[in-house]
Amino acid sequence: MHPYRMQQLIKERNKEEVINVKQRASLYQTISQLLRAGLIAFWETERQEGFPERTLYRVTDEGQETALMWLREMLSTPAQEFPEFPAAVSLLPLLTPEDALHQMEIREARLIEQKARLDEERQVNLPRLYLLEAEYMQTVLEAELRWVRSVIADLRSGQLTWDQDWMQHSQ
Predict the structure, then answer these.
(1) Is the pLDDT score of 95 beyond 90?
(2) Is the pTM above the cut of 0.70?
(3) Which of 32, 52, 76 is the last residue of a domain?
């Protein structure tokens, strides 16, 4: 299929939560890289009235083998990922406890919004197989929300606190 259709299909299937296709330019860059690596190939061009000519791509045999190898590795081997949030948490003492509380409350509200969106998307009547990534994301989101709420509670109660004097003497 052509890149625009790929982007549409990913969105239609609610996969844009796990596959970043917001910028079609990045999709075209990925396609260029896959072409150079021989993992996909030109198939044909298509022309519909009123639309520019579109290039269709197909997966090569090597691309199919590589995709399966990547998939097996991603499923079986936990990756060392470096998400922003744990990095930010590690720097929490740079803020005051009050500012940290405020930022965590904002995050809690945003997580609640994400959860509502995921809950809505999971209402589609599809077999579980097609919803596994949404189920996983929801489980991770719920765990993060519980943790954020526990930090908020500790900040509010004063059980988690710091100041410059404490920071200098705790090292």
Answers:
(1) yes
(2) yes
(3) 76
